[in-house]
Design brief:
This protein is α/β, with parallel strands linked by helices. Among the domains are: about 100 residues, Response regulator (Rossmann fold), CATH 3.40.50.2300; about 60 residues; about 90 residues, Four Helix Bundle (Hemerythrin (Met), subunit A) (Up-down Bundle); about 70 residues, no CATH class. The protein contains 20 helices and ten strands. A five-stranded parallel sheet has the order 2-1-3-4-5, with helices on both faces. Strands 7-6-8-9-10 form a five-stranded parallel sheet, sandwiched between helices. The radius of gyration is 39 Å and the shape is elongated.
């Protein structure tokens, strides 16, 4: 192990011999007989500690100390002054000038060793701190480099893959062109995965929805659900990114607004505009995505804001979520991630009859429970399990047709047939996806929840309509009851009343007039004191 080095500067040979005798077993010793030689040796050897006698001819210890501290090479070397036993003024002056410590003559071996050890410990701690600082600085520099590389590479990849995806939406393309565009997209996806591996990135969209789209080996098409009732704002300072985002959103028939800066986005919010989703670029000049979102939230905006980011380094997800964002999409934009976020956050103003939607949601939730229980068996099914599975798939197949979900109904028919044929391989490969699509459909047909517990409503109107419904039940007038319930369900009611109205609608589908009358009486009891 390398020894630390000590420089002794003293014009008395006896002092040098004594100190060398004490310290040489543990340290490498350099010695100088005057101040000028001491300064030269200090610059040549850069010792760890200097022992400097104060009283010397030609150049005293204070002058030597001043020279050492004025030199860039030696200014940080700790200096211990050597003084006479009765020279307390020298000690005070030396410490005031910045000396690390002092020792007195005649020398005590134990004291000399302890004073030197203390300075070596301080030196080692300082070296450790400097090394840690340099390591942190290098780590930060690496992170900054990776962040810039990630952004600079992913941004053009977003255009390449995004435009290929947009072109593939054209149903008139020839098979050869479709094949070529798929190759472009798949090559871009492979290159993006390679970039992730090189930069050691962590795709944090995995924690958001359980997939990042980068593990796919080939492009998988998305079944687009038009959402003409939805509205989004895209904020990005790069025109090609706006073009790609708009193109990928086009099949949804959304109302799309754009802004090319954070300032422009803020102006739109100040004008009172509200969107189902704001897609916000993270890195923009002058005002970045974080600053923009902070300003928007300060205005009291509660809507969904999702960041679009080419920076996928680990740790960024937490930063986004802690600064007002509700989600994130990495660039290149993955259409599966985009599709899931749209379904999740854009509440459908559905054309599905509210009564029918209510029934479907209940049936779908029951089916999901059956499917989850079925999947937990991990393929160890008996005939009764498969039979029960098939019956439930058959029931939900018809319910899906009733709300216009024909594509998902077709998948249900495929699974029903697989159940009848006991094709467990097909059942296992498709049921999980079907269950997830069913959950998304529930979200789609679920109307926005309104806080109407304390809302003002026309009590007299409700009494009048409930009375007519009660009378209609007596003569089994289904049309009148349906028309009145449809009219009432379009209005805002306290939650309890709305639940009763929905229950009456469900009873009407089964022509349960007595149950409708009983529920009507419950509403009458609630509004008696109005």
């Amino acid at each position: 192990m390398k020894k630390n080095s000590i420089l002794i500067i003293d014009d008395e040979k006896a002092n040098i011999i004594t100190l060398t005798h004490i310290l040489s077993p543990k340290y490498n010793i350099h010695a100088a007989k005057n101040g000028k030689e001491g300064i030269e040796l200090a610059n040549n050897y850069l010792p760890d500690v200097i022992l400097l006698d104060i009283i010397m001819s030609e150049m005293d210890g204070y002058e030597v100390f001043s020279e050492l501290k004025n030199s860039e090479k030696t200014k940080d070397i700790p200096v211990i002054f050597v003084t006479g036993l009765d020279k307390t003024d020298d000690e005070e002056k030396g410490l005031a000038l910045g000396a690390a410590d002092y020792i007195t003559k005649p020398f005590s071996s134990a004291v000399v060793e302890l004073r030197i050890q203390n300075q070596i410990k301080i030196l080692e701690q300082r070296i450790t701190e400097q090394a840690l600082y340099q390591a942190n600085a290098l780590s930060q520099a690496k992170s900054n480099f990776l962040e810039k590389m990630s952004h600079d590479i992913r941004t053009p990849m977003n255009s390449i893959m995004g435009i290929a995806e947009i072109l593939l939406q054209d149903k008139t393309l020839t098979p050869k062109i479709i094949e070529s565009l798929n190759k472009i997209y798949n090559s871009g996806e492979l290159l993006t995965k390679i970039i992730n591996d090189i930069l050691n990135d962590k795709i944090f969209m995995e924690s958001e929805i359980g997939m990042d789209g980068m593990n796919q080996t080939r492009r998988m098409p998305v079944l687009f659900k038009p959402m003409p009732y939805g509205s989004v704002l895209i904020v990005d300072d790069v025109e090609s990114n706006l073009y790609v985002a708009k193109g990928l959103l086009a099949p949804y028939e959304l109302q799309i607004d754009t802004a090319m800066s954070g300032f422009e986005a803020i102006d739109k919010i100040k004008e009172g505009k509200v969107y189902d989703i704001i897609f916000m670029d993270y890195m923009m000049p002058k005002m970045d995505g974080l600053q923009t979102v902070k300003k928007i939230r300060e205005f009291g905006y509660k809507g969904i804001i999702v960041t679009l980011t080419a920076n996928v380094l680990a740790g960024q997800a937490e930063i986004f979520m802690a600064n007002g964002f509700d989600g994130f999409i990495t660039k290149p934009i993955n259409v599966h991630v985009l599709n899931t976020l749209l379904i999740k956050h854009i509440k459908v103003r559905s054309t599905v009859d509210p009564q029918l939607a209510e029934i479907f949601i209940r049936d779908a939730n029951k089916t999901i429970e059956v499917l989850e229980s079925f999947l937990k068996k991990n393929g160890t099914f008996n005939e009764e399990d498969i039979k029960f599975y098939t019956i439930n798939i058959h029931a939900i197949k018809s319910a899906l047709v009733n709300i216009g979900e024909t594509s998902l109904s077709d998948l249900a028919a495929k699974l029903e047939q697989a159940g009848r044929e006991k094709d467990t391989a097909l059942i296992l490969s498709e049921t999980e996806n079907f269950k997830n699509d069913l959950k998304n459909t529930i979200i789609k047909v679920t109307p926005p929840v309104e806080n109407t517990e304390n809302c003002d409503y026309d009590c007299n109107l409700l009494k009048e309509k409930i009375l007519i419904i009660t009378e209609a039940c007596k003569v089994y007038d289904k049309k009148t009851i349906k028309d009145l319930l449809t009219e009432l369900l379009k209005k805002s009611w306290p939650v309890t009343i709305k639940d009763h109205l929905c229950a009456m609608s469900i009873s009407l589908l089964h022509s349960e007039f007595e149950e409708i009358s009983r529920t009507a009486q419950k509403i009458t009891d609630i509004i008696t004191d109005c």
